[in-house]
Every structure is written in structure tokens, then in C-alpha cells.
Design brief:
This protein is of the alpha+beta class. About 55% of the residues lie in helices and about 10% in strands. It is globular. The protein starts with a strand and ends in a 7-residue tail after the last helix.
């Protein structure tokens, strides 16, 4: 049985976790605090430290590239899910980069402004240290102060998807592909804190309700 090592609110972990859940793939879930990577480092024999991380028998897979899809692609191959059809490879790459760069860059700031202050002290300090090394001192407080504007920006970035979904039940096919799970992960990260709400975009809301179903059988 697979083991998924994750941070519960990570958009990339949410995407992989939901792929497993919706396709009825049995797996064990191991949540780790942000600063504790020993289980991943040991499982990869020192070659990886990122989440999501999937342990499948003697194989351990982490995302290693900037737009890492290695874990999702492994699960896709392992269970023949056809989430990456060859004829849609180009458009999926373009869309996933928009989702995992432009959209995620705004969404995670909103969620972090709620989640980081609520974490246990050691994890909270390590998270703040990590964020400030990348985005500058005081960034988490700045995101807290900017929540209203960031939420408006997030809603604006979602409008192209709402337009796409007016014409199709899912983003680019009549069934969920990887980009649907990638978008779902970023949106669920944005909603994870329980304080934010999905923007009032009719087609996106319908899609989100469909994607939230725990199984493809439903």
C-alpha cells in the first residue's frame, strides 16, 4: 500500500491526495510538521526532502523539478489513470504553470496568514523563517494586512477558469485530468483555513462541487 507523506494544507499534497481518494486507491497518510523532514530523507536515502512524497514498497518519489509533477505522474502510471493524455500534454503544461505559479502565489499567502500563526511554536517559527528568507522580513504580517486585496486578486485570477468551465464539465475534457486536480489543490489550500470562501463564480462552483466528490463512482 502507498504511503503519502504530506503537509495537510500544501496545495500540491492536496492534489495528489485527492487523486488517490477519488480513484479509490488505498493509501496510508502521514502528516509531518513543516520542519520535520527526517522521514522523507530516510525514505529517499538522502535524495529528497520535499512533499508530497509517496512511498511505494521500495520506491520513494518526490517532486524534484520547479513545476514538479513527478509524484502525480508516478501515481498516474502506477494505476493507469490517464491523467496526462499525450494529445493534451501541451495545454496541460501551460495551464498547470498558470495554476501552480500565478494562482498559487496569491492563494498560499492568504492561507499562510491564517495558518502560520496557529501552528505550534517551533513549527510556526520555522515557517516564518522559511517565508522571510524567500519573501522578506515581516511578509506574513504583510499578507495578513493585505488579505482583502489578495482575495480580490485570487478571484480575478480564477475568472478564466470560470469562462472555460462554461463550455465543459471539466477544464479541458469531459473528465478530470491532472490540471483539474492541480486547480482543486490550489483552491483547497486557499479554503483550508476555514475563513475564506470560494468566489461567486457560477461555473467554477459547479466544477468544485463535482471535484469535491470523494469518489468517481458518486
Amino acid at each position: 500500500m502507498l504511503t503519502l507523506i504530506q503537509f495537510p494544507w500544501s496545495p500540491f499534497c492536496i492534489s495528489v491526495r485527492h487523486i488517490l481518494e477519488r480513484n479509490g486507491i488505498p493509501f496510508r497518510l502521514r502528516n509531518i510538521p513543516f520542519h520535520e523532514r527526517a522521514s522523507i530523507i530516510k525514505a529517499t536515502n538522502g535524495h529528497g526532502y520535499t512533499v508530497p512524497c509517496v512511498v511505494d514498497g521500495k520506491q520513494t518519489i518526490c517532486d524534484v523539478t520547479d513545476f514538479g509533477q513527478e509524484v502525480a505522474r508516478y501515481v498516474n502510471r502506477r494505476y493507469s489513470l490517464n491523467l496526462f493524455p499525450k494529445e493534451l500534454e501541451g495545454i496541460q503544461l501551460i495551464l498547470s504553470r498558470y495554476i501552480e505559479n500565478d494562482l498559487e502565489m496569491v492563494g498560499f499567502k492568504i492561507n499562510d496568514s491564517y495558518i502560520i500563526p496557529s501552528r505550534p511554536m517551533l513549527e510556526r517559527v520555522m515557517l516564518i523563517r522559511h517565508k522571510e528568507r524567500k519573501f522578506g522580513k515581516g511578509c506574513v504580517q504583510a499578507w495578513t494586512n493585505q488579505r482583502k486585496d489578495l482575495c480580490a486578486q485570487f478571484a480575478e485570477l480564477l475568472k478564466p477558469f470560470d469562462n472555460m468551465l462554461a463550455q465543459s464539465p471539466f477544464l479541458i475534457a469531459d473528465r478530470p485530468l491532472f490540471v483539474d486536480y492541480a486547480l482543486y489543490g490550489v483552491i483547497e489550500n486557499y479554503l483550508f483555513n476555514g475563513k475564506t470562501k470560494l468566489p461567486n463564480l457560477k461555473h467554477l462552483r459547479r466544477w468544485h462541487c463535482s471535484m469535491a466528490s470523494p469518489s468517481l463512482k458518486n
